[in-house]
């Protein structure tokens, strides 16, 4: 009865956990890798419309939300430039993937081919979605990085501690960014595809999901900061042992 809802909850937990696993293994390079994976997958997954939690929604929201978790972790641990690098990687990934996927449609399939019709169905709508996605991605992600550091400067000035109120700068930047993302992407991608009522339903449900995913990523960014701290201690310990040897 709650098939879609269970999958969505599991997807959220697995997605955010995957971000931490890649970060633990590859540090900031793992976060860059996840940005590329999530950008490609989210732009395909967004074509699927489902019903869940009593709402009509597109998929891709959780994957896209994970890119905000990535930029927030990078902002927190490596600085603004590192977060902007992730954004630029996402932009480059979208552009290159669009060009590659569109080249597939130029071929004349063999008479024994079975995949071409499905590929054409999926990717014939990709250029518009990708163009909108890239444009919105640039605006929203750069805004998110900017907002994160503005919140950080505010809390540091107000309370005199750069470590406190991580939850505030994380959620404060993401919730505003996701609202902007929801409005720009829904109307840019689906105007003329769905009627107004459906687009409003998609926008409302998408933002509700984004609110949930934004709040849900808070423990994960704290875990990422702890992982980074422990990794720093481990590296310092290794260097100390090497000097002693």
Can you describe this structure in just a few lines?
With 245 residues, the chain is mainly α.
Account of the 3D structure:
- The protein has one domain (3-244).
- Helix content is 82%, strand content 3%.
- It has nine helices and two strands.
- The protein has helices at residues 3-26, 28-45, 61-78, 80-104, 116-123, 126-159, 166-190, 196-216, 218-244; strands at 49-52, 55-58.
- A two-stranded antiparallel sheet has the order 1-2.
- β1 and β2 form a beta hairpin.
- α2 packs antiparallel against α3 (61-78) and α3 crosses α9.
- It is globular.
- The model has no long low-confidence stretch (mean pLDDT 89).
Low-confidence stretches: none
Distance between the termini: 62 Å
Largest sheet: 2 strands, antiparallel
Number of domains: 1
What coarse outline follows from CA principal-axis ratios?
Answer: globular
Number of strands: 2
* Arithmetic mean pLDDT: 89
């Amino acid at each position: 009865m709650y098939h879609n809802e269970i999958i969505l909850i599991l997807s959220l937990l697995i997605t955010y956990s995957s971000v931490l696993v890649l970060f633990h293994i590859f540090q900031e390079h793992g976060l860059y890798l996840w940005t590329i994976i999530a950008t490609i997958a989210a732009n395909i997954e967004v074509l699927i419309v489902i019903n869940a939690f009593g709402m009509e929604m597109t998929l891709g929201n959780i994957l896209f939300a994970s890119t905000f978790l990535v930029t927030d972790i990078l902002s927190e641990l490596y600085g603004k430039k590192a977060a902007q690098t992730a954004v630029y990687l996402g932009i480059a990934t979208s552009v290159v993937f669009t060009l590659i996927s569109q080249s597939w449609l130029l071929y004349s399939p063999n008479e024994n081919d079975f995949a071409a019709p499905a590929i054409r169905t999926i990717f014939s709508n990709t250029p518009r979605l990708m163009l909108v996605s890239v444009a919105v991605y640039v605006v929203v992600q750069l805004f998110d990085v900017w907002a994160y550091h503005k919140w950080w400067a505010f809390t540091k000035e107000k309370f005199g501690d750069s470590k406190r109120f991580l939850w505030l700068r994380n959620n404060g930047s993401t919730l505003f960014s996701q609202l902007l993302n929801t409005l720009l992407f829904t109307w840019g991608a689906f105007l003329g595809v769905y009627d107004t009522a459906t687009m409003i339903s998609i926008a409302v449900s998408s933002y509700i999901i984004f609110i949930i995913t934004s709040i849900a990523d808070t423990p994960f960014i704290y875990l990422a900061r702890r992982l980074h701290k422990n990794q720093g201690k481990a590296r310092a310990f290794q260097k100390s042992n090497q000097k002693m040897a």
